């Protein structure tokens, strides 16, 4: 037997895929937290859900939050990158609704996060090829 050191190899874990999972998961958690907070705990002055239209928007946010987390968990499964990209694009539309319909300028910052997630998803797609 030789005393020569055998280099240890680690399995290849694509950086962009891991980063996309992290960002998708964080966005999903943020959406779920905000939906629960504004649906049940916020005051009317803070923007509590109060009308039927508000409940539709809250349901949309809840569905996207769950979708983001599910996509983060299953991102390595074929086809999930496309689903995740569609979710991010739906979140952009959601941000436009919040900005135009509710006058929430906070949505502008989330547009930047959406662009970052889209860029990382594109990089993850390139890593797969």
Automatic annotation (TrEMBL):
Keywords: Membrane, Transmembrane, Transmembrane helix
Domain of life: Bacteria
TM ranges: 21-43, 55-76, 83-101, 107-125
Protein name in UniProt: Uncharacterized protein
Species: uncultured Solirubrobacteraceae bacterium
């Amino acid at each position: 037997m030789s005393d020569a050191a055998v280099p240890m190899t680690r399995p290849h874990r694509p950086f962009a895929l891991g980063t996309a999972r992290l960002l998708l998961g964080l966005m999903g958690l943020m959406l779920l937290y905000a939906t629960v907070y504004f649906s049940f705990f916020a005051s009317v002055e803070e923007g509590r859900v109060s009308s039927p239209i508000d409940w539709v928007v809250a349901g949309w946010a809840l569905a996207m939050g769950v979708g983001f987390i599910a996509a983060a968990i299953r991102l390595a499964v074929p086809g999930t990158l496309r689903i995740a990209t569609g979710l991010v694009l739906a979140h952009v539309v959601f941000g436009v609704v919040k900005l135009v319909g509710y006058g929430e300028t906070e949505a502008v910052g989330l547009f930047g996060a959406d662009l970052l997630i889209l860029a990382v998803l594109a990089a993850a797609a390139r890593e797969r090829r």
